[in-house]
Design brief:
This protein is an alpha+beta fold and 96 residues long. Helix 1 runs antiparallel to helix 2. The protein contains 2 helices and 5 strands.
Amino acid sequence: MPSFRVILGIGALRPGVHPPTVLPVVAEAVAEVATVEASSVELVAGEPRVVIRFTADEPAQAVRIAEEADATAGAVAQVLSRRVTKRVGGRWVGVT
């Protein structure tokens, strides 16, 4: 089954939300609908990013899963950006 990633740029947290809770909340939401292979937080050019790697049958399904992740993240933080990528060989390729 193909591997995909959703990469969410995270801005300000909602009132009362503690930074360490953002990643688990988003990963758990994805785990309800897909197999989560890995999850992490990255800091790129000063922007925190939540990265969830998961499996899906096809790109359209991966996009729907990414939308769910985005909505869940939006409940706890401002989402600045969203990207979905698919593992192809040794590279990550954007999904449209």
